[in-house]
Specification:
Layout lengths: L9 H24 L6 H33 L8 H25 L4 H37 L2 H19 L3 H16 L1
């Protein structure tokens, strides 16, 4: 499916991203709970997806485009839901960075690397599932109340622009395919 096509609202597009991210979170859970026979290459694919799709593509869209639009509409940053979402994005980045650094060490100490991966994956999973729930059930409903349909459509257009300019066109689609591939692994 092409980006933005079929969506009427920015919140619909973000919710759709969440469903894709959740598929990879399910895989990450299998990797973290499993007997740890998974190869570092599979961990690497999951972490790469998280860095590029969940963080650069999705979290940056929220931070640069969606949250500022909500602030303009009177939803507070400090002491409010946006401030909390931003803090959680930062916390998530910390866990992802630890996983990426462990993977970069590679084969010298694969068992030690896996311990770090499992620890950080579990913390990341718990945080991100709660985070997605809060956005889906609270913040996005607030957004649907304060944004007009016209504003929602304008935000969708800005999402498209962000992905093309900052991430490169085709990256979104590439990572949707990676998510499907990883999903097959987890099945
Ligand atoms: Fe978020
Ligand atoms: Fe989100």
């Amino acid at each position: 499916m092409e980006r933005g096509v079929g969506f009427e609202k920015a919140t619909e597009a973000l919710r759709h991203d969440h469903r894709v991210i959740e598929k990879v979170l399910d895989l990450l859970e299998k990797l973290a709970e499993g007997p740890n026979e998974a190869s570092l290459a599979t961990w690497g694919k999951a972490v790469d997806f998280i860095q590029n799709f969940a963080d650069r593509c999705h979290h940056l869209k929220e931070e640069k485009i969606f949250f500022p639009a909500l602030e303009e509409r009177g939803i507070p940053r400090q002491g409010g839901p946006i401030g909390m979402m931003l803090m959680e994005h930062e916390e998530a980045r910390g866990y992802v960075k630890s996983m990426a650094m462990a993977l970069a060490k590679g084969g010298e100490d694969p068992e030690g690397v896996k311990v770090t991966l499992v620890e950080n994956a579990k913390l990341y999973l718990r945080l991100l599932r709660q985070h997605i729930l809060k956005e889906d059930e609270v913040l996005f409903n607030m957004a649907d109340d304060v944004l007009t349909l016209q504003e929602q459509k304008e935000l969708l257009r800005e999402f498209e622009e962000h992905e093309t300019k900052e991430i490169g066109s085709g990256i979104h689609e590439k990572y949707l395919k990676v998510a499907q591939e990883l999903e097959r692994y987890a099945a």
